[in-house]
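To the wet lab folks,

You asked to see what we're planning to order before we commit. Fair enough. Below is the target structure as tokens, and below that is the sequence we designed to fit it. If anything looks off to you, flag it before the synthesis order goes out.
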């Protein structure tokens, strides 16, 4: 876990970052730094490292690649309980809390918002898989930003469509798709997320 919380700053947004499969906490720090580049302000953030380390290749993940829906949910619940326990500290009371995650981290962010519907003000879900969530009902006042690359083949199209449908039914959804982009992040996406953060 890496953290940077500037309690003397005038920005009351706290970004909670969750990386994708096979990466680490620096993945989300790079994205958060890009969001604040050129603003003259320092972000308030906590970027978390996955709970499991990959053998041989390195880096981490939140739940095993290819695992079933029940196991994914169970692992997300475990992480969520730890994150919520951390956020109970009075030091975080003044912040509006924004989840931001890529791929596995995007799905994890959704599960946190679903399990704790009034704790988070917004969730930025970048290329998540919503496998198994087809009948999900989400009752949360949080605002959601959902984005995919039009050429993303890592996340099957039906899972992308499920994410769009679940979040659209919940309301408060901003959806973006980026032509020519696969399972990645692009400059246009960073600009759109920055605009989204201004509306929270």
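Sequence we intend to order:
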């Amino acid at each position: 876990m890496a953290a940077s919380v500037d309690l003397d700053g005038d920005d009351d947004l706290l970004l909670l970052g969750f990386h994708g499969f096979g990466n680490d906490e620096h993945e989300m720090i790079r994205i958060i730094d890009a969001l604040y580049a050129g603003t003259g302000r320092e972000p308030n953030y906590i970027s978390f490292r996955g709970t499991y380390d990959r053998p041989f290749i390195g880096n981490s993940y939140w739940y095993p690649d290819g695992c079933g829906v029940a196991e994914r949910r169970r692992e997300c619940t475990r992480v969520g309980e730890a994150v919520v326990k951390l956020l109970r500290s009075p030091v975080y009371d003044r912040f509006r809390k924004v989840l931001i995650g890529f791929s596995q981290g995007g799905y994890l962010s959704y599960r946190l918002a679903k399990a704790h519907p009034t704790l988070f003000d917004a969730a930025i879900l970048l290329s998540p898989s919503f496998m198994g969530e087809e009948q999900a009902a989400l009752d949360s006042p949080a605002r959601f930003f959902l984005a995919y690359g039009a050429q993303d083949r890592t996340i099957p199209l039906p899972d992308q469509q499920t994410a769009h449908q679940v979040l659209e039914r919940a309301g408060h959804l901003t959806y973006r798709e980026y032509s020519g982009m696969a399972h990645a992040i692009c400059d246009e996406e960073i600009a759109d997320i920055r605009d989204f953060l201004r509306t929270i």
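Structural context that might help your review: The beta strands are 2-4, 13-18, 45-48, 52-53, 60-61, 96-102, 122-126, 143-149, 173-178. Residues 4-10 have pLDDT under 50 and may be disordered.

Thanks,
Computational group
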